[in-house]
Write a structure and sequence with these properties.
single chain, about 475 residues, mainly alpha, two-stranded parallel sheet, 17 helices, 2 strands, about 0% strand, transmembrane helix, WaaL-like, ligase
Length: about 475
């Protein structure tokens, strides 16, 4: 075990972790649509936990500046929704954002309440989940190689996700966290060996997946942590580089040498992704830019990139362009400032405790790397759009808030707490209503999309995420 054991968290936390696990592992109930259902249920559980928490458990995790700026962002969002073409879908997008904030708040409160005991549970869960997914991958790889079929399609090895790029987003969140046991002096040598083997395998899968966004995100996070996070950051960097090299060697063996020896042709080879192609992103980036120029102040409304159909995607695959074209430039600047403020506060704390080798301080570096990698990947991919990635973003941000050293431990303002609770209840209620309303009818929606527009499914809220009206 990596941390000392004492009190146990509330039951809802284990239910949430179970949903994180089930929606990524069990293929019949995984993929984009089922993960959206899991996200809504996690939001409901977290909302119930927040609302039912006693006053003595309420903490002010945000200062007045953050609350004020967040309120302005919410107000601008409501104005954008009011002016949008389909306000009901714009409200759903806002509900998704607020539900993610609900998950963040619940996890932050739970971590602040239980301390390092919850850190042990979190890392044990991450290791277990990644180990199960690795075993799935290895079993599928062995079955493909020894099935007697002369072709190995690497795309079929990534189970549980509608697209292997979404799998890559999940790996961007978890690769930095898997290094934690390797950095703790109390971890046994035998445990370190197995964790390193898992990390190397996880890197092999990240390479085999061919997600350039994952490669970019991890590279940027690794360089930043190496340069800015002291001795602990450099140790994290060395373990990641060593594991990445191990993963590359495993990848070359299982996807190049062994298939060549067995006369098996590998299709969708990750090496084919080593190019500078934008994969049609220039088309959707141009659409987003035209939308920004058309409505710079309030945007077209949350989710409304999906209201203008194109043949590529229902979101721009670029976080700044997406927020600016849907919410407006002022909101984008405010949200960017809030994110930068949070990142800077975390970095300052890392620098303040740069000489510490305590488990919490090492965990903070790992979580910081996870968040940096995901935000970098969001520059070229839909990290802020996909439901499972939204779940992990909420978990990572919530944990960072829960382990942050706040200047004040005072309770949250009572009026603010009640207003915030009411807002979250409304948001989670709308999210649950949308899921219950749409989920039984998704097959018909997808068939209708095929008749109206043709082409591939374009994920947004659902796997078929285009909300544009049918052409006449």
């Amino acid at each position: 075990m990596f941390f000392e054991r004492s009190a146990q968290p509330r039951l809802y936390f284990y239910f949430c972790m179970s949903l994180y696990f089930v929606s990524a592992v069990f293929t019949p109930i995984s993929g984009n649509d089922w993960q959206r259902v899991a996200q809504s249920v996690v939001s409901l559980l977290c909302c119930f936990a927040l609302v039912s928490s006693g006053r003595h458990e309420s903490r002010a995790f945000l200062d007045k500046v953050t609350v004020s700026l967040g309120t302005v962002v919410l107000g601008l969002g409501l104005l954008s929704i009011w002016k949008s073409h389909q306000p009901q879908w714009a409200l759903v997008e806002l509900a998704v954002l607020l539900s993610s904030c609900c998950i963040v708040s619940a996890f932050a409160l739970e971590r602040a309440r239980f301390g390092q005991d919850l850190d042990r549970i979190l890392i044990s869960f991450v290791i277990f989940l990644c180990a199960v997914k690795s075993l799935q991958f290895i079993a599928a790889l062995a079955a493909a190689l020894f099935s007697g079929i002369a072709t190995l399609d690497s795309t079929l090895l990534f189970e549980g996700f509608s697209n292997r790029r979404f799998y890559g987003q999940f790996q961007t969140f978890t690769l930095p966290l898997l290094a934690l046991p390797l950095l703790l002096a109390a971890t046994k040598i035998s445990t370190k060996f197995w964790v390193f083997l898992l990390l190397g395998c996880w890197w092999m899968m990240a390479i085999a997946g061919g997600s350039r966004g994952t490669w970019l995100g991890m590279a940027c996070a690794a360089i930043f942590i190496f340069c800015c996070c002291g001795a602990g950051g450099r140790r994290w960097f060395r373990w990641q580089i060593t594991a990445a090299a191990t993963g590359l060697a495993l990848f070359l063996f299982f996807f190049s040498f062994l298939p060549g020896y067995m006369n098996v042709e590998v299709t969708n080879f990750a090496g084919d992704r080593l190019n500078t192609s934008l994969s049609a992103r220039e088309i959707i980036w141009q659409q987003a830019w035209e939308m920004i120029k058309a409505r710079p102040l309030l945007g077209f409304g949350p989710m409304h990139f999906a209201d203008i159909h194109n043949q590529v995607a229902a979101h721009p695959h670029q976080i700044f362009l997406q927020w600016a074209c849907e919410w407006g430039i002022p909101s984008t600047l405010l949200v960017t400032g809030l994110v930068a403020r949070g990142l800077l506060a975390t970095l300052q704390l890392i620098r303040k405790r740069i000489a510490s080798s305590g488990s919490v301080d090492i965990l903070r570096i790992c979580l910081f790397g996870s968040l940096l990698g995901a935000l970098t990947q969001a520059m070229v991919d839909g990290v802020i759009v996909m439901p499972y990635s939204q779940l992990w973003m909420a978990l990572v941000v919530g944990w960072l808030m829960g382990i942050h050293e706040w200047s004040s431990s005072e309770s949250a303002n009572v009026a603010f707490r009640w207003c915030w609770s009411a807002t979250l209840i409304l948001a989670v209620g709308l999210l649950m209503y949308t899921v219950v309303r749409d989920f039984p009818d998704l097959d018909r929606r997808e068939d209708q999309y095929g008749r109206d527009f043709g082409g591939i499914l374009q994920p947004r809220f659902w796997q078929q995420g285009v909300i544009a009206e049918s052409p006449p």
